[in-house]
């Protein structure tokens, strides 16, 4: 994915959600990250189409030579959860919209403060 180029021009990666440089898998969470084979199985999309969707909507990014997709972003996209996807791509990992997106994807939230009394 061409974050460096797309992030500096209007209409770049994730621009549909008002996010010039999406926070997909930032910070990297192995519970959220899936490979292209798993992303294809979840989405039903062909490899090249899925990569195009990832580039356009910020559903994944290339790490080294491999694609990593966010299970949360992909599930939100497939479910039409624009609010959850936008919050995720903006870097929100605690708000109600993104919490719902994490729950829908079955991904535990990391680093979330405990709500139980001390």
Briefly characterize the structure.
By secondary structure, this protein is mainly α. It contains 6 helices and 3 strands.
Q: What would your notes on this structure say?
A:
- With 118 residues, the chain is mainly alpha-helical.
- Helices cover 42% and strands 9% of the residues.
- A three-stranded antiparallel beta sheet has the order 1-3-2.
- A hairpin with a 2-residue loop joins β2 and β3.
- α4 runs antiparallel to α5, α4 crosses α6 and α5 crosses α6.
- The protein is globular, with a radius of gyration of 14 Å.
- It starts with a helix and ends in a 13-residue tail after the last helix.
Descriptive keywords:
3-stranded antiparallel beta sheet, mainly alpha, single chain, 3 strands, disordered N terminus, 118 residues
Number of strands: 3
Residue-averaged pLDDT, rounded? 81
Order of helices and strands: HEHHEEHHH
The proportion of strand residues reads 5-15%
Q: Rg to the nearest angstrom?
A: 14 Å
Low-pLDDT parts are 1-15, 113-118
Question: What structural category do the secondary elements indicate?
Answer: mainly alpha
Distance between the amino and carboxyl termini: 44 Å
Can you list the strand order of the major beta sheet? 1-3-2
The quaternary structure here is single chain
Count of helices?
A: 6
Q: Helix share of residues?
A: 40-55%
Largest sheet at a glance? 3 strands, antiparallel
Shape: globular
